[in-house]
Design brief:
The complex is a heterodimer of chains A (345) and B (299). Chain A is mainly α. Chain A is built from 16 helices and 2 strands. Chain A folds into 3 domains: 86 residues, no CATH class; 200 residues, Orthogonal Bundle (MetI-like fold), CATH 1.10.3720; 41 residues, no CATH class. In chain A, a hairpin with a 4-residue loop joins strand 1 and strand 2. Chain A is globular and about 80 Å long. With 299 residues, chain B is mostly helical. Helix content of chain B is 71%, strand content 0%. In chain B, helix 2 crosses helix 4, helix 4 packs parallel to helix 12 and helix 5 crosses helix 7. Classes of the chains: A mainly alpha (345), B mainly alpha (299).
Chain lengths: 345, 299
């Protein structure tokens, strides 16, 4: 197991180097003047672009520039964000909790619903529930996230008035600004902070504003998981060990959930790594429509203002999230499935 | 010659027949045919006001408040008094243009990369596939947005960025397909007979990748149109007034929620362009799903 982890971590370093090269190649398509923004750390520096170009050798060869850029990146200097009017890393620290909170609810819910419905439709193949999930899957694929979010907004916010937009109501926002000592921001997540500060009103308000964004994201992403679980469930149920289990008199529940599903979940876990990235991608549209100022909102605002350092940073960050979540899933599978663990060492 | 032609026809006819037996794909085909009809006859359905640039939506006045459907504007006007009917009709052409361009370019790049990688194997394969792995780590929407920022705003740049991002999927699938085909006896036979590598790829391997490419292309059309319309929705697309569904949704954005006494007052601003996007994507996905069932019943 340890050898497996070490091998994967070494592989991870190579992939990260590859990602950095790819991003640097995109960066090199800009003129040195615009590229300088990726090194700037303060408004004063932004005034002195020729100085930046000279300091980081932006007129020199690819190799020299790459060296400068990686050393800057590794020391946490990702440039200046126009939209946030602060360095990219500081802006990231401000926006990340908002997106994290959204995904903290959306990803586990997606997993639960996807695996549950996928298993059911795999067991009862060709039944009503199977057709139902199939239709849900096709609709989920065909509905653009931003349109689905707009429709939900139209019905549940405009017509029914049940849920709000934004992250938290203006009154609470004001309260939080004026009472920084009463409401301590432990995590930056409003719902968690609400519980930790025993402030039920803020918790409920933040939770209420999370319902629609989470629903959107779950609905759009769950289709993939459902289909994968279904097909691997069908495959497992046709195997010999299921016949054996039935022959020895195991009841349906044991056969389905103890024998078949444990094996059927392996492809599902493999996909879950991509699911995290997919979910983060879904947050982009969700945050735009529901006016939640998180990373997705920041990304889009930066893109429309052609604020390139933020885009480069986001590519790097998403690549990192993808690689790490895949690594976690691989380790999880290796831990669960001895066949994989033993075959790769 | 005639025999050969018949053979080629059968190549597409059998799956075509099975496509027509599936009610889901029939719905998809009907929707798609209607969109094709609208796109083909756009100049007759909605005669352009500006002959030099038919994609520019005509607008009467500059008022931001949408007007409901009447006899002159069948679907009403959206914010900026752009005619929704006109935008929807010509937006169909934009959607086809975007989707087809991206899918054809991406499939072309992806198939060639996949075929070369799978056919030669060894270190060529290793290098190409590691590069694909690395590109794979960044979600397509975010990578495409980064490319659009580097190319500049505009529909053409969105199309180019999406094509440069989405070839990776074809490359992976086609490579694994080629690895299977490579082992076939007829490929070995061709090699022994001294047929050149290029000719083997063109004559013996490429034709066998047509079904996977067809399935992927159909399924990709939907997600390409989703991504393109999202990017125009946030304002990275064509200039204001261009007939494009994503942009029309963006124009409707401030009128999603009407005044408190009539929350659905401006329903037409989102219903028509939004409905078009959903139906268009749904049609391609229904057909793609059915195609996959036909060629790959396990999936």
């Amino acid at each position: 197991m340890l050898a497996f982890i070490i091998r994967r971590c070494i592989f991870l370093i190579f992939v990260l180097i590859g990602i950095s090269l790819l991003i640097f190649c995109i960066l090199m398509t800009f003129s040195p003047e615009r590229r300088a923004a990726a090194y700037v750390q303060s408004p004063q520096q932004a005034q002195n672009i020729p100085g930046i170009i000279k300091q980081y050798g932006l007129n020199q060869s690819f190799y020299v520039q790459y060296k400068h850029w990686t050393s800057q990146t590794l020391s946490g200097n990702f440039g200046w964000s126009l939209v946030a009017a602060q360095p990219v890393w500081d802006a990231f620290c401000q926006y990340f909790p908002i997106t994290f909170e959204l995904n903290l609810y959306a990803v586990p819910l997606t997993l639960l619903i996807g695996i549950y419905l996928g298993t059911l439709s795999g067991i009862h193949r060709g039944s009503a529930i199977d057709h139902f999930t199939r239709i849900i899957a096709i609709i989920g694929w065909s509905l653009p996230t931003f349109l689905f979010a707009l429709i939900l907004l139209m019905v549940f916010y405009g017509y029914l008035g049940w849920f709000g937009t934004g992250i938290i109501s203006d009154d609470f926002q004001l309260y939080l600004l004026n009472h920084t000592d009463e409401f301590i921001r432990y995590t930056g997540l409003y719902t968690i902070d609400g519980i930790l500060n025993f402030n039920g009103a803020i918790f409920l308000d933040a939770l209420k504003r999370l319902v629609l964004p989470v629903a959107t994201q779950v609905f759009v992403v769950v289709a993939l998981l459902m289909r994968i679980t279904r097909s691997s469930m069908i495959e497992e149920l046709s195997k010999d060990y299921i016949t054996t289990a039935r022959a020895k008199g195991a009841d349906n529940k044991t056969v389905y959930y103890k024998h078949a599903r444990k094996n059927a979940l392996i492809p599902t876990i493999t996909v879950s790594g991509q699911l995290v990235a997919l979910s983060m991608e879904g947050s982009v549209a969700v945050e735009i429509v529901f006016n939640r100022h998180g990373m997705g909102w920041w990304l889009v605002s930066s893109a429309t203002q052609l604020d390139m350092p933020v885009l480069m940073f986001m590519c790097m960050f998403m690549g990192f999230v993808f690689v790490v979540s895949n690594l976690v899933c691989d380790l999880l599978i290796a831990w669960l499935d001895p066949r994989i663990r033993l075959s790769t060492i | 010659m005639k025999e050969k032609l018949l053979l080629y026809c059968r190549y597409f006819l059998t799956p075509g027949k099975r496509l027509l037996n599936n009610p889901m794909s029939v719905i998809g085909i009907i929707i798609l045919l209607s969109f094709t009809f609208i796109a083909l006859f756009a100049p007759f359905l909605a005669p352009p006001k500006y002959a030099f640039n038919p994609y520019r939506m005509p607008h009467k006045g500059y008022s931001t408040i949408p007007k409901p459907p009447d006899s002159q504007h069948f679907f009403g006007t959206t914010s900026g008094q752009y005619d929704i009917y006109y935008g929807v009709v010509w937006g169909t052409r934009t959607a086809f243009k975007t989707g087809l361009f991206v899918v054809v370019i991406a499939a072309f790049i992806g198939v060639w990369v996949g075929v070369i990688s799978g056919y030669y194997g060894g270190w060529i394969d290793e290098i190409i596939m590691r590069v694909v792995d690395i590109i794979w780590t960044i979600p397509s929407l975010i990578l495409a947005m980064a490319l659009v920022v580097s190319f500049g705003r505009g529909l053409e740049n969105i199309m180019l960025a999406l094509a440069l991002v989405s070839w990776r999927w074809y490359a992976r699938v086609i490579r694994s397909e080629v690895l299977k085909i490579k082992q076939m006896a007829y490929v070995h036979a061709a090699k022994i007979m001294g047929v050149s590598d290029f000719r083997i790829m063109i004559r013996h391997i490429l034709p066998n990748t047509i079904y996977p490419v067809l399935i992927m292309g159909t399924l990709e059309m939907g997600s390409i149109v989703i991504m393109a319309s999202f990017m125009s929705f946030v304002g990275l697309g064509a200039p204001k007034g261009y007939a494009d569904w994503g942009q029309m949704v963006a124009l409707a954005r401030n009128y999603i929620v009407g005044p408190p006494d009539a929350p659905f007052k401006y329903w037409y601003t989102i219903f028509f362009p939004g409905g078009c996007i959903i139906l268009f994507v749904l049609a391609w996905n229904l057909i793609g799903d059915a195609l996959r069932d036909i060629f790959d019943p396990k999936g």
